[in-house]
Structures are given as structure tokens and as C-alpha cells.
């Protein structure tokens, strides 16, 4: 049976995981997280593709691709969460599930991180559970059909 496709999309600075503020974001690299999500996804019957970009336009285009293909998305919009109306408008166009994930608990951090402009158009939000948050988001998507 063909596996259902899911896009895991990571925004700005998340390619620096493992070296970036390890006390906040941990020691695991983006590549390691991506490998794990592909295999966890396969065990859930999902075909997971993980992408990361520091280019907001590129992320907007990936969200268009997800909207056009009705592809579920796990999205960590990183710093863009807090101010990108362009990403919010792109995320609003989706019809399939979109789960917003943050590695850190944005609500216990600086005040400017407490609000995400994406959350109101997400199916759900996971914050503060580290890389496990992505796996839980995949479990949710797998359980949806
Ligand atoms: C983040 C939280 C954001 O506030 C921050 O800008 C990030 C990562 C997280 O995963 O915890 O880059 O989205």
C-alpha cells in the first residue's frame, strides 16, 4: 500500500540544531532528527519528507505545495512563528492537518515568544517536548485516517 505523504517543515535557524544554544534546543542535529522522523513515519505508515530553510519565501512555497496537494504538515516556523503574517496566510490555505511544533516551551521563555501567529490556523500545537514533539505530531496525523 502506498504510504501517505507528510511534510515536516522547519524554519529559520533550525538547520543549526545541535550547535545552536544546546541548553535550549538540545544536542541532536537537524539531520539526526530528520532521519529518525523518516523511520518513525514509516513505522506509522507515513512517507515523511523533512525540509529546512532559512528563506521565508521558500517555506511559503512549500506550504502552497502542501495546500495544493492536500498534504498534512508538521511545521516548526521557528522565529517566523512570532510575526510572519505571510506564513500565517500560507498556512491558512491548507485543508489537511497542520501541527505546529516548537522544541522549547515558548510560553516559559521571553514574552515575544509567547504568541504565535500560526497557532490559530493549526490543527494543534506541541511545545516544549523537544524532538519527541515531532514524533507525537506524526502519531496524530497517522491516527487521523
Ligand atoms: C522555536 C522557538 C522560537 O521562538 C525560536 O525562534 C526558534 C525555535 C522552538 O522550536 O522552540 O527558532 O520554534
Description:
It is a single chain. By secondary structure, this protein is of the alpha/beta class. It has a single domain, classed as 3-Layer(aba) Sandwich (Rossmann fold), CATH 3.40.50. Strands 2-1-3-4-5 form a five-stranded parallel beta sheet, with helices on both faces. β3, α4 and β4 form a beta-alpha-beta unit. α3 runs parallel beside α4. The longest helix is centred in the N-terminal third of the chain and has 14 residues. The radius of gyration is 14 Å and the shape is globular. 35% of the residues are buried. Bound molecules: 1,3,4-trihydroxy-5-OXO-cyclohexanecarboxylic acid.
CATH topology: Rossmann fold
CATH architecture: 3-Layer(aba) Sandwich
Tally of separate helices: 5
Mean of all residue-level pLDDT scores: 96
- Name the beta content range: 15-25%
Low-pLDDT regions? none
Helix content: 25-40%
Q: Please identify the structural class as seen in this structure.
A: alpha/beta
Written as H for each helix and E for each strand, in order along the chain, the element string is: EHHEHEHEEH
Distance between the termini: 14 Å
The CATH superfamily title: Dehydroquinase, class II
> What is the highest CATH level, the class?
Alpha Beta
**Cα radius of gyration in angstroms:** 14 Å
Q: What is the count of β-strands?
A: 5
Q: How many structural domains in the coordinates?
A: 1
Strand order of the largest sheet: 2-1-3-4-5
Shape: globular
Bound molecules: 1,3,4-trihydroxy-5-OXO-cyclohexanecarboxylic acid
Please describe the biggest sheet, giving its number of strands, its sense, and whether it closes into a barrel.
Answer: 5 strands, parallel
